[in-house]
Amino acid sequence: MKIGKPRNLAALAPFLLLLVAVAIYVIVAVATGQTQYLTAENLLGLLGRSIALGITAIGQTFAILIASIDLSVANLISVSAVLASSIMSGDPSMMLPAIAAVLAVGVVVGLINGLVITQFEVNPLIATLGMALILQGLLSATFNNFAGEVPEEFQVFAYGQVGGISISLIFLIALAVAAWVFLRFTRVGSNIYSVGGNPDAAKLAGMRTARVVIMAHVICSVCATIAGLYLASRLRSGAPWIGRDGVYDLESIAVVVIGGTALSGGRGGVWGTLMGVMIFSLIDSIFNIAGVDAFAKQILRGVIIVAAVAVYAVRSRRIEA
Amino acid sequence: MMARLKQMNPVFLVLVLLFVAIAILSPYFLQPTGYMNFLKRAAPIAILAVGQLYVINSGGFDLSAGALVTLTVIGSSILLDGDASATWWVILVMLGVGVIVGTVNALVVSWLKVPSIIATLGMMITLSGVALTWSGGAPRGYLPENFRFFGRYLIKELPLIKILPVAVIVMVVVCVAMWWLMHRTNYGKRLIAMGDNPKAALLAGIPLTETRIVAFIMSSISAVMAGILLGGFAGVSTDVGVGLELQAITAAVIGGAQLLGGRGTVGATIAGALVLQAMFTLLNILGFPKPIRDVVQGLILISAVVIAGYRRRRSGG
User: Fold this and answer.
1) What's A70-114 look like in SS3?
2) What does residue A243 show for φ and ψ, rounded to 5 degrees?
3) Of A133, A313, A320, the CB nearest to B59
4) pTM
5) Which positions in chain B touch A136 (Cβ < 8 Å)?
6) A215 vs chain B: nearest CA distance in angstroms?
């Protein structure tokens, strides 16, 4: 997506939504006399509170760009966090093996998702939902509580700071930049847009569409495992429910769509997704400042997701589901 | 004969095999109390699955069904709080809520053009928010005996089958009605045509919005009825409906329903629900821990779709 040179309203929509959210945030903060929330630090911190969602959503952007979807990310996050903390068991020398093992799990899960979708022509919703159930079942059958712990050195990922900015925020932005460069300037990146926009045309143009789909799913799953590593670092240990409790599957889809990536594939990008994440954390902060009851918050959230998606509704054509 | 056998939906064969396996492992299930209790436990999921099938055949999903089950159980128990004389109007109110939820879902999809997966996801989040706000996060109130009648009561001392749970009667009546609407009326034909090819259906003069509204209402009403049954035999809790929408979708898919529209039948969906329940029962008998249910549900979900796709390609359909 090109900021500054939008071709139509749709490309500008996430930015406008973000502005509206910021405006409401400012108005609520001023109206309730809580201007301490208006510092630059606080606004930067907004994104910092949604690192795990941000990382997951960047991966989900790839899946949705190829007109697929991944419902297994939340459960994969749990698997990754539990696996990381139980391999590390507080031992700093096990950090690298644990990270390698977790990333390998991400690659394998993404490969399976992609292969089931492309080779057996299973609807991506079903394929990844099945994967979600399998992962969660295997995990819950093996662990029923916090397992292992991560060493202090690994907690730097979540708590460390460089020049006053948290390492995890820098990582998130670096990941977004990498994803943007990949999508915008590499051949595989443009293939992703072609396959998502029109798989038949892409095939006729000689692309190996199956490979592109599989690659997008591997990227999506690996991002989910990185989010799991981040959560293990932040919570100091992994538990089999952390992914599901964060509703990362549905929330990551919601922020990607709010960020302007079409569910029908082929249009959108990473920066929109990051704006979607910021919109979500702004909504959360607005509710907190306004003192909205936690459960009522949930009601409003449901309404807002639907309303925001309705803004883009005209764009999604293929997945009419 | 062989040709007909080949065309038969494999879900029925799987169901028979599962029943045989269960009967061999545990003869209790050959007793009337055994199989009747099995059917009773399968009743809510069968009703939900058939309701879900309406939406699936229309080309969508209803993810809000599980949350609506929870809302029904929580809401009824708060409204009733043990007052047996209020049961009938509370049931009517809940069915009314179902009609409203279904209508809103359908209108959001039709008018705002929001994909149904997002529309009903929003509804799911909203409904569980309503249930939590209303109850304050913990179950309150109490369900009187005459409300729990549907889920819990067993008609005893019958000839031949000895006992007959009311839940099974409810399941049979509801499913027959839903079968009739889907497979014996013009509405059913319009629904399936719409799921198969919305553009063609529109050009053929089918009112898409109205057809979709009825489909979503069927799903929501079935969720309310499943909630009434579950409130009867499982009691009041805030997580009674969690994951039920996925079980309902799984059951429909096992029965051969094609996602994004137009192929599922009510009979095969009920068989799919029974397969799912039988699978859970079998795992239980074999002593597997409960989470393994999820693994098996995931595996059969994917394999059901793979097999259905393979059969479709072979038959050139």
Assistant:
1) CCCHHHHHHHHHHHHHHHHCCCHHHHHHHHHHHHHHHHHHHHHHH
2) -70, -45
3) A320
4) 0.87
5) 291, 294
6) 20
Instruction: Write the DSSP string, B34-93.
Output: HHHHHHHHHHHHHHHHHHHHHHHHTT---TTHHHHHHHHHHHHHHHHTT-GGGHHHHHHH
A231 part of contact set with chain B, CB < 8 Å: no
Is the Cα torsion angle A222, A239, A259, B106 positive or negative in sign? positive
- From the list B248, B270, B228, the residue with the least C-alpha distance to B91 is B228
Q: Which of residues 281-300 of B touch A (CB under 8 A)?
A: 289-299
Searching chain A, which residue's CA lies closest to the CA of residue B137?
A295
CA atoms of A309 and B114, how far apart (whole Å):
6
Is beta strand A161-162 parallel, antiparallel or unpaired with respect to A165-166?
antiparallel
Q: Judge: A123–B305 Cβ closer than 8 Å, yes or no.
A: yes
Look at A321 and B129 and tell me if their CB atoms are within 8 Å: no
Q: How is residue A97 written in tokens?
A: 């093996």
Question: What Å distances lie between residue B25 and B38, B42, B287, B293, B300, CA to CA?
Answer: 15, 19, 12, 18, 21
Nearest CA in chain A to B121: A302
The C-alpha atoms of residue B55 and residue B115 are separated, in whole angstroms, by 13
**CA proximity to A75, closest of A287, A254, A225, A235:** A225
Note whether A74 and A192 are within 8 A (CB). Answer: no
How many beta carbons lie within 10 A of that of residue A314, not counting itself? Answer: 11
Residues near A112 by beta carbon (within 8 Å), at least 6 away in sequence = A131
How close are the terminal C-alpha atoms of chain A, in Å?
25
B residues 127-166 near A, CB within 8 Å? 127-130, 132-133, 137
CB contact residues (below 8 A), chain A span 289-318, against chain B? 293, 295-303, 305-306, 309-310, 313-314, 316
How many pairs of residues across A and B have Cβ atoms under 8 Å apart? Answer: 150
Closest CA to B150 of B163, B167, B164: B167
The 8-class DSSP code of residue A236 comes to S
**ipTM above 0.85 for this complex:** no
Measured between CB atoms, does A75 come within 8 Å of chain B? no
Q: Cα separation of A228 and A111, whole Å?
A: 18
Residue with tokens 């949604």: A50
* H or E stretch covering A161: strand A161-162
Q: What is the pLDDT along chain A (321 residues), one digit of tens a residue?
A: 444 444 555 667 888 888 998 899 889 888 888 877 777 777 777 777 789 999 999 999 999 999 999 999 999 999 999 999 999 998 999 999 999 999 999 999 999 999 999 999 888 988 998 999 999 999 998 888 888 889 999 999 989 888 888 899 999 999 999 999 999 999 999 999 999 999 999 999 989 999 999 999 999 999 999 999 999 999 999 989 888 888 888 889 889 988 988 888 888 999 999 999 999 888 888 888 888 887 888 888 888 888 877 777 655 444 444
Are the beta carbons of B117 and A125 separated by less than 8 Å? yes
E strands of chain B, at which residues?
A: 154-158, 162-165
Report the pLDDT value the prediction gives residue A34, as an integer from 0 to 100: 81
